[in-house]
Each structure stands twice: as structure tokens, then as C-alpha cells.
Amino acid sequence: MPFGQIVIGPPGSGKSTYCNGVVQFFNAIGRKSSVINLDPANDRLPYDCELDIRDFITLEEIMEDQNLGPNGGMMYALESLDDSIDLLIKKIEKISEHSYIVFDCPGQVELFTHHSSLHKIFKTLEKKLDIRLCVVSLIDSFYLTSASQYISVLLLALRSMLQLDLPHVNVFSKIDLVSNYGELPFNLDYYTEVQDLSYLKPHVEKESNSVLGKRYSKLTNYIAELVEDFNLVSFEVLAVEDKQSMINLLSVIDKANGYMFGSTEVGGDTVWAEATRQGGAADVDIQDRWIENKAKYDEEEAKRRKEMIEEAEKMEKPFDVEDEWESALKDWEENHATIRK
Ligand SMILES: Nc1nc2c(ncn2[C@@H]2O[C@H](COP(=O)(O)OP(=O)(O)OP(=O)(O)O)[C@@H](O)[C@H]2O)c(=O)[nH]1
Ligand SMILES: [Mg+2]
């Protein structure tokens, strides 16, 4: 049975960087994986791409042929892809026979909130290939800095969860940058767990002081109540360069799409699969890691890396990313075992 993840998020939220990191991680644990680029505008891919939508259609061509701008062009491109979906599915089917699939998607949020092409494509894939998919929705941590923007982001997450109708893992990306943005009124867990949004009210009101602003803050507060009523939205955090945060996130994703419980026919990653089956995600204190003691953790990390490089030099062998992953996985397992006891 094939498995995969669909990586979505607003422009610049870190999707392609994450896809590249994920494939590196999967290589390190021995899972065969492939990235499929579904963004017709994405002409600079940081990863080796197994299948590229740009082989079928490119945004530049569509804009020229149809006389459309970049946004209209993107809609048109995905609608026309819808017509050639059988060919695309055939290609994906071939890849999924031997490989876990990561879909890198375009950043236009409307494609996931009120446009049905991508939704239809994924549903057809599920039906025809019996592939187990999970959406990984990345949102830049910068949005944590404003209460009203944070609530908008919650609504966006809820909207795409309801529209795409697939298991979702919402993620605040670039969490390594959040401490640079100044002090937040609440701990990070408050923002990731999405509980009791009424605490945000005074902050929303402070952000909008004009007459219209007062109405805006009322609307924002209603939206917060609505999101809370659904009780569906919560977040993980990710700093793509921090291997522990990647490992934690991937253990959550493996659970969400069922990979952890399903077959490992396409896998080759039995050690990892067994560790996650037994333990689930580690319980990391994100406030401590990314805000309160960030400098200390970063220093430790840098020191460990330096030691690994020196060790490799001593043994006269090149130091590569696989060594780094191997060491990070060992740490994670040790940490994990302590948590499980
Ligand atoms: N500090 C930091 N920067 C990141 C992280 N992830 C991505 N970035 C940076 O964010 C920028 C945008 O990343 P991309 O991966 O191109 O984002 P994207 O979502 O694919 O962007 P579009 O395809 O244009 O929608 C790049 O400069 C990345 O290096 C992260 O975890 N931490
Ligand atoms: Mg991209």
C-alpha cells in the first residue's frame, strides 16, 4: 500500500526546503522516497525531482498562450492538469510502487481553500491508487507576532482542513526565527495547542484602534470562537535545519497518514518504523528549546557538529549529511527511551 504527504502552505512558508529536508531524512533512515513537484511555477527545485508538473505544463507558457497573469495562469494550469489527470496518475502509480511520495505544492492558498482542482486530484489518487495521504500545512512562524494575523492563520488552516478532507498536520515553520521577532505575550504552547482564544481579545483590540478597526476586532473575535468550536486545529513546530525537530515532526506525520501502523512494503526503514510504533512523538518543551534557552541549545548543537567533523577528519573520511542524521537519530532514540520509561 503506497503512502505519501502533500506539502502545502502560503508562498515562502518553506515547502520546497522542507521537501528537500524530508528526502534527506528518509535517505538516512533507509526509506525510499520521491518528490513530485506540483507547482507549475517552481523552476528552481532544491531537490532531485522524480516527476515534475513542469514536464506537462509551465506557468510561463500558459500565461503567454492564454494571455493571463501569474495567478489566473496558475488556476488555469491546474484546471488543465485536471484534464490530463489519467496520464499523471499513471506516472505517480509507477513511482508509488517503489517509493513513499512527497508532493510539493504551489503556494496560492486559494487552491486549497476554494478551488477544487487539487482536491479532486488527491481524491482521485486516493481512490485509484489506494494511497494513504496526509497534508502537511506549513505556516511561517512570523504570523505568531500579531494576534489578529494568528487568528487569520487558524481560519486558513481550518478552511484547508475542511476543504481537502484529508488528515492534516499543521506546522509553524521557521520556528528558529521566532525569538528574533520580540517577546510574545504567551508561551509557544499556547499558540500550538490553540486553546482558549479569548485570551487574545485584548491583543486583537490593541492592534485595531480606529472605528472600522473596532469592527474588525469584533469579527476577529467571532472567528476565534468559530475556530475554537471546531476544535480541530493544532500545530507542530519546525526548524528545517534542526534535525530533532524534523524527526519529531516526521513521527507525527507517520502517525497521521497511517504509515506507522501500515505496511513497510515500500519502506526499508524497519528500525525507524519500530521506534515510532513503540513511542510516538517525543514531548519537547518548545518554549524552552526555541525561546528561553535557544542560544544554549544552538551552542550545544554547533559544538556537537564540530566534534563530528573533527572525528571524521581524524579518521580521514568525508563528513556528510548522512552521518549527521545518524547521530541525530541516535540522540532522538535515547531521548525517546527516557521519555517512555
Ligand atoms: N530560518 C529558516 N528559514 C527557512 C526554513 N525553512 C525555509 N526557510 C527559508 O525560507 C525561504 C522560502 O523557502 P521555500 O522552501 O522556497 O518556500 P516555499 O514555500 O517553497 O515557497 P514558494 O514555492 O515560493 O511558495 C528560503 O529562503 C528558505 O531558506 C526554516 O526552518 N528556518
Ligand atoms: Mg516552493
CATH top level label: Alpha Beta
Span between N and C termini?
A: 33 Å
- Percent helix among the residues? 55-70%
What is the average of the pLDDT values?
87
Structure class: alpha/beta
Number of strands: 7
Q: What's the helix-strand series?
A: EHEEHHHEHHEHEHHHEHHHHH
Number of domains: 1
How many whole angstroms does the radius of gyration measure?
A: 21 Å
The biggest sheet, with number of strands, parallel, antiparallel or mixed sense and barrel status, is: 7 strands, parallel
> Could you name the CATH homologous superfamily?
P-loop containing nucleotide triphosphate hydrolases
Q: Could you name the CATH topology? A: Rossmann fold
Low-confidence stretches: none
Descriptive overview:
- This is GPN-loop GTPase 2.
- One of its GO terms (biological process) is protein import into nucleus.
- It comes from Wickerhamomyces anomalus (strain ATCC 58044 / CBS 1984 / NCYC 433 / NRRL Y-366-8).
- InterPro entries: Gpn (IPR004130), Gpn2 (IPR030231), P-loop_NTPase (IPR027417).
- The protein is built from 15 helices and seven strands.
- By secondary structure, it is α/β, with parallel strands linked by helices.
- The two termini are 33 Å apart.
- The model has no long low-confidence stretch (mean pLDDT 87).
- Bound molecules: guanosine-5'-triphosphate and magnesium ion (MG).
- Magnesium ion binds next to helix 1.
